[in-house]
Amino acid sequence: MNKTDLINNISEKNGLAKKDVEAVLNGFLGEITEALAGGDKVQLIGFGTFETRKRAGRTGRNPQTGTTIEIPESTVPAFKAGNKLKEAVN
After folding, report:
1. What is the rounded distance in angstroms from the CA atom of residue 43 to the CA atom of residue 27?
2. Which molecular-function annotations from GO does this UniProt entry contain (predicted)?
């Protein structure tokens, strides 16, 4: 399912205009992005937690040339599923 499918499904199930659903979804994603960029964590009880994690620097290898390169430390977004979501999937 992609973003357009999600908007269409929510619109049909709730009788809302696609334009309104898209505005809410874009706002939701924007708020999560801003919170993660600011170092905050977003917890949706029953669904899951969006957070950032530090990835340590490491040595990698260029597959074309075989030379080693240093990959710097970075911060990456992460999602941990909540209990209700895990139960629904299983």
Report:
1. 16
2. DNA binding; identical protein binding; structural constituent of chromatin
Contact assessment for residue 36 and residue 50, using Cβ atoms and an 8 Å cutoff? yes
User: Where do we find the tokens 């957070």?
Assistant: 51
Its pTM stands at 0.79
| Encoded tokens for 19 | 């334009």
> What pLDDT score does 9 carry?
96
pLDDT at residue number 75: 95
Number of domains in the chain: 2
Please report which residue ranges of 1-90 form alpha helices under DSSP H.
3-14, 18-37, 83-89
Question: End-to-end CA distance of the chain, in Å?
Answer: 19
Regions of the chain with pLDDT less than 50: none
48 and 80 share a domain?
yes
Residue 23, φ and ψ in degrees, nearest 5: -65, -45
